Structure formats: C-alpha cells, structure tokens
Amino acid sequence: MTDPLRHVKPAVRALKPYTLAARQAPIKINQNENPFELPDAMKRRVLERALARPWGRYPEFDPRELTAALAQLAGWRPDGVLAGNGSNELIEALLLVTVGPGTRVVIPEPTFTLYALLTSILGGESVRVSLGPDLEYDVDTIAQARRQREAAVTIVCSPNNPTGGTLSRDEVARLCVEGDGLVVIDEAYHEFSGESVVPLLAEHENLVVLRTFSKAMSLAGLRVGYLLASPALVREIDKARLPYNINFFSQMAALAVLEERGEMESSVARLRRLRDALFADLQRLRGIRAYPSRANFILIELEDREPRAVFESLYAAGVLVRDVSTYPRLGRCLRVSVGTEAENEALLAGLRRALGEMPARAAAGAREERCPNAESDVRTEPRRCARGKGAWSARRARRTSVSSSIWTARAARRSPPASGSSITCSPPWPSMATSISTCVARATCTWTRTTRWRTSASRSGRPCAKPWATSAGSGASGTPTSPWTRRSRAA
Ligand code: PMP
User: Fold this and answer.
1) Residue 112: CB within 6 Å of ligand 1?
2) Which of 140, 240, 351, 478 is most buried by a 10 A CB count?
3) How many whole angstroms separate alpha carbon 368 and alpha carbon 160?
4) Over the stretch 52-63, which tens digit does the pLDDT of each residue have?
5) Domain span at 232
6) Of ligand 1's atoms, which has the minimum distance to the CA of residue 214?
7) Atom of ligand 1 minimally distant from the CA of 213
8) Using one digit for the tens of pLDDT, what is the confidence trace for 305-333?
9) For the CA of 212, the nearest atom of ligand 1
10) Residue whose CA is closest, atom 4 of ligand 1?
C-alpha cells in the first residue's frame, strides 16, 4: 500500500506541531492563566442556568446575547463582533479567509507561534521581522517589511507573548494608514496593560482586534474569544467559522463574568500589582535578566545556566514554567506566568536554588536559535543586546532569605491529594506528595539530590514525569484561594 501521508500537504508535513507537554504541577505558571478562580457563587449561577436549558438542543446559531455583551464591553458595534471557541479559532478563521498559497503575512518574532503555523498550513509565507535589541517592537522594521513584501496581513501580538512588550496605539494607526493590508492586533493580554487599539476601529477598516476570555477573565477551560473589526470584514471572516462554535454553557459563563465585571477588574488589578512585585524581585536575582512586561507573565533570560536544567529544577520543586528556549532569539529564556503571592514566592525560592547550586554552563556565549518553522527574515541577524554583560553584573546582590512564612501558612491550608488516590510516581522526597507546602520546603534540597533522584528513578524504570502527581490529579492541591472567594467570605 502506498503511504497515505503523501496526501498531506508537504508544507504541513514539514511543520513541527504546536504542542505543550502535558505536565502537571502544584504551581502551574506555564500558560498565562489567571491563578484566581471565579467565585463559587458565580459558577453555581451558571450551572443553574445550564440545568434549566435543554442539553439536547443546539446552541443559538448566532450567539446574539453574547455578541451584544461583548460589543458593550469593548465599546464597539455588535455587527463588528465575532465570538469564537477561544481566540485560537478566530485566528484560524481570519487566516482561512485571507491566506492562500504565496500570501505574505508579516509576523514579528519571537511571538505566539500559532500565527506562523497556520500561515504555513494554508500555503502562505510568513515574513519574520525580528524584534529590537531589547526584544521590543520596532515599528519601522514592521512597516518596512509590509511595504517591501506587499503583505496582505500583519499580525502583532500586543502585549507580546512571550516578551511582554506592546505596540502603541499611534504605531498601530501608522501601520493601518501605510498600506491597505490587514493589521491584526492580538490583545489576548490587553487587560493587564490597560491599553487597547479598539478606538482605532472606527477610522481604520483594515484593523482587526483579537481578544480572549482565557487570561484576565479566568475562563480558559471554557474556550471563549472574540474578534472586533469592521462589519464588512466580520461578515467575511464569519464564513470560515464553524456553525455552533461556542457551546451554550461557555456562552452562559462568559455572560456571567461580564455581569460581574467589577470582580474581574479587581482580579486584574491584583495581578498587575503581583507582576510588578515579581518583576522587582526577579531583577534582584543575580544571573537573571527579567524583561519588563505589560502582560501577566515575565520573560526571564539566564546568564549562564541552561534553561532546560533550570526548568527541570523548578519542576522538581513543584513549579511548572514555560521553556521558550527553542523560540528564535530566546535560547536562554524561560517564561513565567504571574501567580498568587505564594506561587511567586515559590518560583523565586526555586530560582534562587537553581541559580545558586547548579553548575554554570561551560561556555556562556549567546546562543541564538532559529524557530524550526522559520521561512524568511527581514532582519536576519538580530542585533546584540545593548545592555550586554554589564547589565548582569550591575544587579544588586541577590537576597538570601526566603520569605517562606507567608508561603508555608498559605500552602498549609491547601488540601492534600484526595483520599484514596495513589501516587503514580515516587517523589524525590517521600513527604512531597502530601502537600504543596512540603513541596516548597523541600525546594531547599540541593540540585545534586534532585539529580540523584532522577537518575535512580530512570534506572528503576519508574515513571518520573510528575513527581507529586496522584491518580486523582493534582488540581485540588494546587488551587489557590480566590480573592473573590475571600472577599465574599469576609462579607
Ligand atoms: N493569542 C495569544 C497571544 C495567546 O497567548 C493565546 C493563548 N496562549 C491565544 C491567543 C489563544 O487564546 P484562546 O485560549 O482564547 O484560544
């Protein structure tokens, strides 16, 4: 029999898939989710509404109520709003109707990898534009690439995942007037920056804005996103949207979050404060460069430690971060989402340990890696970082004390694994599986000891991907206290 894969487009077969290793950890700060759960009362209201509705019937063909509420939220017209099953679906719908073989799409990099992946699947050409020396957007380079390559679409993530920088409203307006190609601004994290280009929609018919309920709105599990553009453009993009794309339950949940917007706003304000505090703490660590971020995550660059080794060291301490070292220009970087106070403390403690006890790399020279799916570059050679080595040595001496008291007190309140659950993997330290506090306390163990555990675990053939996982899952033990829950309890 001939190989059925020969029917798959060569451009697709050449691609690396967009994947995320399915790891779990008590402190999960790898996907830029909101660590503060929605209040139980709100969840119950959604459940009650869902119970009152027949489940055997399709959701509305056009989710009008949701669209109207989204229009009000954004301050844009309802016929210029398209709701989607997460903003990923809308990125896909948008590219489906605009990109075909040879279509050029300008994409600054490093950025969210889905834009380039979908462009390639559709036969388009990603025109990669490198960020500036400090990983900031360089609007001149983007404008130049659009002009020179006559790009049909330009996609800018602002704040950018994973670097955290933004393109200003004026810069976006400039792109919109310099050529008629579509300018797509992915505002997945805009609540954390407090800025938006939505006010430009009225003047610029080639502007498209993407947003999501997965980050600030604490609804990643229910998949709701939305797109804002001119009504004419929305009608075209809507043709590529699958019918009944948002289930009724997710619609109800999104509406409930919008009904109680004040709660969401205080959660965002709290995360912004936590981000700024975490950034300040990270800056005090020797051997790390933290990039300023307008989002709910921070990119960190390791001076002379291998990102993968630091990632694994943190993971062994129960802290799951995102290894972005395969992204172009981020060969020494990890991305950490902003967590609760306790989670941020655990991250800092884990980093101090990893940085203090791991041997430095033999050759600490910069390693610039290319994205496996890279096609063409406008600026092929990224400029060297202007801050250079001096920036590292200028850092203040790192703190040695870990403010573990808050952490321990909070963590102790968290529940141990559900009774009856069995440990699927022997933890590095026997007591680790029993509570998250133990996990962090044990983070004081040495790197050497972790390594020894790993070595013996792999020798004995035991599964060791999730040191503290239980067959009942680790969610319960890792669920932080919601500020909302706390407030409503106090009230
Ligand atoms: N855009 C960006 C920049 C993102 O980081 C993400 C999620 N990682 C998405 C879009 C997709 O979000 P959603 O959950 O709404 O599909």
Assistant:
1) yes
2) 351
3) 19
4) 999 999 999 999
5) 54-260
6) 14
7) 15
8) 999 999 999 999 999 999 999 999 999 99
9) 15
10) 188
Q: Which ranges in 75-137 belong to alpha helices (H)?
A: 87-98, 114-121
| Residue 241 burial class via C-beta count within 10 angstroms: exposed 0-12, middle 13-18, buried 19 and up | buried
Considering only residues 378 and 321, tell me which one the structure prediction assigns the higher pLDDT: 321
And the tokens for 158?
């602002």
267 belongs to a structural domain: no
Ligand 1 in contact with 467 (CB < 6 A)?
A: no
**Span 28-37, average pLDDT:** 96
User: Could you tell me the two tokens for 201?
Assistant: 């929609």
Ligand 1 in contact with 325 (CB < 6 A)?
Answer: no
Number of H helices, E strands in the chain: 19, 14
**What is the C-alpha to C-alpha distance for residues 264 and 156, in angstroms, rounded to an integer?**
25
Q: Where residue 72 sits, what CATH number does that domain have? A: 3.40.640.10
For residue 203, give both structure tokens.
């003047």
- C-beta of 87 in contact with ligand 1 (< 6 A): yes
Burial (0-12, 13-18, 19+ Cβ within 10 Å), 198: buried
- 88 Cβ inside 6 Å of ligand 1: yes
Is-contact 442 428, C-beta < 8 A? yes
Give the total number of structural domains in the chain: 1
For residue 423, the 8-state DSSP code is B
Residue 157 beta carbon below 6 angstroms from any ligand 1 atom: yes
Is residue 214 a contact partner of residue 187, using CB atoms and an 8 Å limit? no
> Which tops the pLDDT comparison, 472 or 2?
2
**Averaged pLDDT for residues 431-449:** 36
Q: Which residue has the higher pLDDT, 368 or 106?
A: 106
* Ligand 1 site, residue 225, Cβ cutoff 6 A: yes
* Distance in angstroms (rounded) separating the CA atoms of residues 184 and 172: 9
pLDDT confidence of residue 20: 67
* Mutation probe of ligand 1 site: the residue of 212, 213, 224 with most atoms within 8 A of C-beta: 212
Is pLDDT of 468 > 60? Answer: no
Q: Is residue 307 part of a domain?
A: no
460 C-alpha to ligand 1 centroid (Å):
39
Which H or E element spans position 228?
Answer: strand 225-228
At residue 279, φ and ψ (nearest 5 deg) are -60, -45
Angle between helices 139-149 and 169-177 (to 10 degrees): 20
287-307 pLDDT tens trace: 999 999 999 999 999 999 999
d(CA 483, CA 342) in angstroms, rounded, equals: 13
Cβ of 162 below 6 Å from ligand 1: no
Q: Is 117 within the bounds of a domain?
A: yes
pTM over 0.90: no
Under 8 Å between Cβ of 82 and 237: yes
Instruction: Say how far apart CA 215 and CA 192 lie, in whole Å.
Output: 9
Give distance in angstroms: CA of 178 to centre of ligand 1.
27
Residue 269 lies in a domain: no
308 versus 375: which is more confidently predicted? 308
